[in-house]
Amino acid sequence: MTINKTQFLSKTVTELKPSGIRRFFDLAANMEGVISLGVGEPDFVTSWAVREACILSLEQGHTSYTANAGLIELRSEIASYLNRSFSVKYSPTSEILVTVGASQALDLALRAIIDPGDEIIIVEPTFVSYAPIVSLAGGVPVPIHTEKEDEFKLRPDQIEKVITNRTKAILICSPNNPTGSVLSKEELVEISKIIKKHDLLVISDEIYAELVYDQTYTSFPSIEDMFDQTILISGFSKGFAMTGWRLGFVCAPEEILQAMLKIHQYTMMCAPTMAQHAAIEALKGGMHDVEEMRKSYRQRRNFFVNSLTEIGLTCYTPGGAFYAFPSIEKTGMTSEQFAENLLLEEKVAVVPGNVFGESGEGFVRCSYASSIEQLQEAVKRMGRFMKKF
Amino acid sequence: MTFNEIEIEILNIIEKDSRLSVDTIAKMVNKSTEEVSTIIKKLEDLNVIVEYNTMVNWRKVAGHEGVTAMIDVKVAPKRGVGFDAIAERIYRYPEVKSVYLMSGAYDLSVVIEGKSMSEVGNFVSDKLSTLDSVLSTTTHFVLKKYKHDGTIFDHGEEDKRIVVSP
Ligand SMILES: Cc1ncc(COP(=O)(O)O)c(C=O)c1O
């Protein structure tokens, strides 16, 4: 008799739900002629100067480990970038850690602060990884459901309602994946008052900070009195079109950062060396490219959101990232049915909103990180699809 | 001439792709189609938008490959009209794709496109070299175009992303 191998698995892992994104990937991957609006990454290839810097680093033989916290030159560039772009000051030697994507940064932050049973507040609709990584760290994810009427923005009173004596932190993602919603400075200040009152920590995922279209971006640690209670997560994936490089960073006050560094040095050692060399070039000479990409996303967002509205998929205008999150209410379908039928009938891939938590039901995530030609074709097909309703 | 932000944005959009419909451009810049039509008309009338062109990779069309040559031309400028008069006599020829006044080793850079090497050769020896103020010419034939006016021919940078990702 063969042994039941699942008996070896941890309860936490067994109980993790498989990602809905994965299921959709499997469905769409084998079809021909699909236009994908399901992609959570830029359609730009990393700018040539950055790729070239990586090639040079290989030519020079930079193939060994770096310091655990990352190349000091990169940490210094990150510090000056954060200071000039968002007016937040972190010390490159003690408050910045270079990670394998924002993903690892999030994992480190959670593992550094969670004791078994600690509650972490998560704002839904949410990035698919948040709840699972909270669980993996032994914590309990506590969702807050934001609403279309609030443009999916977190209201301070919603936080107060879910706080218990086990609440440790709140994970905020602005601009948000999947809704594209951006919190203004005033809104963040209101949120910070609750944070202060209850001595919570904020994990601020600012991976989309470069992709904000209609307002200046406010970084959470720049809010008055919030520096000591914030872990800033960011990286190069989205703004610099560097998803495959697996490079991110985390910044926090020294005591917290050093705790994360401890975990990092035992579990990861350091981020990839050539990617770090490339990232130095991205920060030094790549800001113009970032600006160009941002302009292009803005035009595509306008085109896409205006077009969605025209074909009856109502959608508020997302202020950042590259996602539109239209309501599919008038079709009467669940988000899964909608996404599946749209894929099968018109070969357009979108991601069902329920993948991002309960409050995402009734919506679908469409990424507009595609060329205008692709978006035009997608809208044409979706328009045809929507005629039935 | 000064132009506002929207006008410049429209110029940038059209410069990249002149085939986009007015309706699409209007949606991209969040304006009405009427407003965008008016702006485009104005930019055309002012000759800011000079022409709508298509970049063709003729190498891919059998029998239409053609030959491009870049010719360094030294000229004797004329009193009162400088280089402009001779430049004009050169750029009037339809074979001539572009003419630039240059600093350095020669005066005019002339780009010629012809059907064959001999056609370009004939143009240089019969038309260009015989002009009064032309002192000398040096002809360089283009062997392969990798990038032209900011566009990479055959760059192979197709979408490599997976269909659905977080
Ligand atoms: C909100 C959010 N955080 C983090 C990440 C992961 O980024 P990285 O590629 O840097 O690991 C993503 C990627 O989709 C994201 O959307």
Care to describe what's here?
- The complex is a heterodimer of chains A (389) and B (166).
- With 389 residues, chain A is α/β, with parallel strands linked by helices.
- Helix content of chain A is 41%, strand content 13%.
- Chain A contains 13 helices and twelve strands.
- Chain A has helices spanning 11-15, 20-29, 48-59, 72-86, 101-113, 130-136, 156-162, 185-197, 254-267, 273-285, 287-310, 335-346, 372-386; strands at residues 35-36, 96-99, 119-124, 140-145, 167-173, 201-205, 230-235, 248-251, 323-324, 348-349, 351-352, 364-367.
- Chain A has a seven-stranded mixed β-sheet, sandwiched between helices. A three-stranded antiparallel β-sheet of chain A has the order 9-12-11.
- In chain A, strand 5 (167-173), helix 8 and strand 6 form a beta-alpha-beta unit.
- In chain A, helix 3 packs across helix 10, helix 7 runs parallel beside helix 8 and helix 11 packs parallel to helix 13 (372-386).
- The model of chain A has no long low-confidence stretch (mean pLDDT 96).
- Chain B is α+β, with helices and mostly antiparallel strands.
- Chain B contains five helices and six strands.
- In chain B, helix 2 (22-29) packs across helix 3.
- In chain B, the strands form two sheets. A four-stranded antiparallel β-sheet of chain B has the order 2-3-1-4.
- The longest helix of chain B has 13 residues, at 33-45.
- The chains are: A alpha/beta (389), B alpha+beta (166).
- At the A-B interface, helix 2 and helix 11 of A face helix 1 and helix 2 of B.
Kindly provide the radius of gyration of chain B, computed on alpha-carbon positions and rounded to a whole number of angstroms: 21 Å
Q: Name the poorly predicted regions of chain A.
A: none
How many runs of DSSP E, i.e. beta strands of chain A? 12
* Class by SSE composition of chain A: alpha/beta
The fraction of residues in strands of chain A falls at 5-15%
Instruction: Specify the helix fraction band of chain B.
Output: 25-40%
Specify the structural class of chain B: alpha+beta
Tally the helices of chain A: what do you get?
13
Q: What oligomeric state do these chains adopt? A: heterodimer
CA-to-CA gap between the ends of chain A? Answer: 54 Å
Mean pLDDT of chain B: 93
Strand order of the largest sheet of chain B: 2-3-1-4
Spatial order of strands in the largest sheet of chain A: 2-8-7-6-5-3-4
Please state the overall shape of chain B, judged from the principal axes of the Cα atoms: extended
